[in-house]
Amino acid sequence: MKVLAAMSGGVDSAVAAARAAEAGHEVVGVHMALSKNRDQRRTGSRGCCTVEDASDARRAADRIGIPYYVWDLSDDFHDLVVEDFLSEYAAGRTPNPCVRCNERIKFASLMERATLLGFDAVCTGHYASIRTDGPSGTPSLHRSRNMAKDQSYVLAVMGPEAVGRSLFPLGEYETKDEVREEARKRGLGVSTKPDSYDICFVADGDTRGFLERNLGADPGEILDDSGAVIGTHRGTHGFTIGQRKGLGIQQPAADGAPRYVVDIDPSSRQVVVGAAELLSTRELIATDVVSFEPLSAGREVHAQIRAHGEATPARILEVPAASAEASEPSADASESSAATADPAPSPSLRVGLDTPIRGVAPGQTLVLYDGDRVIAAATLERRA
């Protein structure tokens, strides 16, 4: 099989490429240059697509014995990931740029180019597994055995077609130390290279500063949940639902309890803060559903809303018409649909949680699991 191996310059992608070559595939390595600043340097574990990263990827490819190229995808990355990040924050939403990068760059732009060049699959160093033990017998996306590094959440938006044309050789490793040891045994110089973290295009880690530099200051008011003005801010883009620190409030709550961001309204430039209880919800509403298999109301699942958060036991309450199974709805679905008089099918996915969770923000990604298998991903619109 002809395989295009995405090589970031880190240890994970280097070992993945080596494993693919060892398996007998015809492997070509490619480094995606995503930063418009070609002279950018790494700062510890921060930064992406730096000069050092490209050089490390080239050395790894040479060691493995595979051809290596650098592809300039900086325009795609800026337009599809960075601009999306800025526009979502400007709209009072909380995006996950890693989800967008995987969806639009690594498994859209990259795979499109790979297809045009005649490659059969794309190989990456993500921690996830692809198996064929689902109900349909087709390739399905599963959690990695290394739960501390599991990336199935950020990969879920890629959809079943891309899964069928992907290789994730690291999914069966139980620890990162095992991956580093394999890199060392193979003579890959990146075996001790530190992991990257945070938002890769915010190299200094100052997300609020990055947003203000790009979106500008847009002062407004901070209100408590009674509507009283208790402070001011420089822009709603500096806040996310559930945020506790950095609110800039000098006036304490009457009961002395911590206050959290519970609502953001960019149109009025108002940020509302309140008690933690106001953040709790037991129902999620999402759109832009990507299904790996048919969904049905009443089905028990686990729901996850953060890349490294815990999955919560839940039940699907309502599904978009295109995602529904052909079978008759369950009793639970009938009860929920009876509560609305509108006969038109809903474009939304509604999920009820067994226990309430806090900090649900529009723009976050909702991923549904059946055991360790991904069954759907969607974009959260609001909490009910």
From TrEMBL:
EC number: 2.8.1.13
Location in the cell: Cytoplasm
Lineage start: Bacteria, Bacillati, Actinomycetota, Actinomycetes, Micrococcales
Domain of life: Bacteria
Keyword Disulfide bond: yes
Protein's UniProt name: tRNA-specific 2-thiouridylase MnmA
Gene3D superfamilies in UniProt: Adenine nucleotide alpha hydrolases-like domains (2.30.30.280), HUPs (3.40.50.620), Translation factors (2.40.30.10)
Reactions that this protein is recorded to catalyse: S-sulfanyl-L-cysteinyl-[protein] + uridine(34) in tRNA + AH2 + ATP = 2-thiouridine(34) in tRNA + L-cysteinyl-[protein] + A + AMP + diphosphate + H(+)
Domain tRNA-specific 2-thiouridylase MnmA-like central: 209-274
Keyword Cell membrane applies: no
Enzyme class at the top of the EC tree: transferase
Function: Catalyzes the 2-thiolation of uridine at the wobble position (U34) of tRNA, leading to the formation of s(2)U34.
GO molecular function: tRNA-uridine 2-sulfurtransferase activity
Site (Interaction with tRNA): H126, Q364
NCBIfam families, alphabetized: PRK00143.1, trmU
Catalytic residues as annotated in Swiss-Prot or TrEMBL: C101 (nucleophile), C200 (cysteine persulfide intermediate)
SUPFAM superfamilies in alphabetical order: Adenine nucleotide alpha hydrolases-like
